[in-house]
Amino acid sequence: MEPSFWHEKWQLQQIGFHQYQVNPFLVKYWPHIGLTENSKVFVPLCGKSLDMFYLAEKRHGVLGCELNTLAVEQFFTDNDLAYQVTHTDDHAVFSTDQVTLYQGDIFTLPTSVTTSIGGFYDRAALIAWPEAMRQQYVKALAALIPANVSGLLITLDYPQESLKGPPFAVSPDWVETYLRPYFNIELLECVDVLADNPRFVNKQVPWLNEAVYKLTRKP
To answer: Is the pLDDT of residue 99 over 70?
Structure first.
């Protein structure tokens, strides 16, 4: 998707991808990552996700990257957090005590930004990309994740022809094919969540599987 697509979605507040509660898979499976307090967690394409607030409450340092300025600003204002803004060559950096969000293109985020992370969390990044750009994103993510660092990946899968994304369908086979070269992969759970997603029901999508994986960056 072109950046203008996402900027327009945020400007019009057409943000159906934003969840107004913490993702249940995050709550259930985050302990599997085994991070200690004060470990940094990288959240790509973070939007204004409440999942970041959950991670901060676990006393992790949250390091996010988000394209749209309004999304970043709303994360802080929605949660009544004062923040400071600095700038690098390609990104504006919004920060408070436990959360630092890099506003800008993830494809230009320097790998030096993530060298000290202890984990990562991808709920809405991989599924935001159409097929061709998704492979490019995987390469960028792999470059940003240090060796032996683990995280959670949450995907959605459904018959792609039945609905125009985003979110785009990402099958278990796709995960195996394109992430296996960079990550060790463990499927933690996969469930049909169609009944909980009216948009998919209204479009007569026959099934909708949400899956959570533990990924560990290979050395």
So the answer is: yes
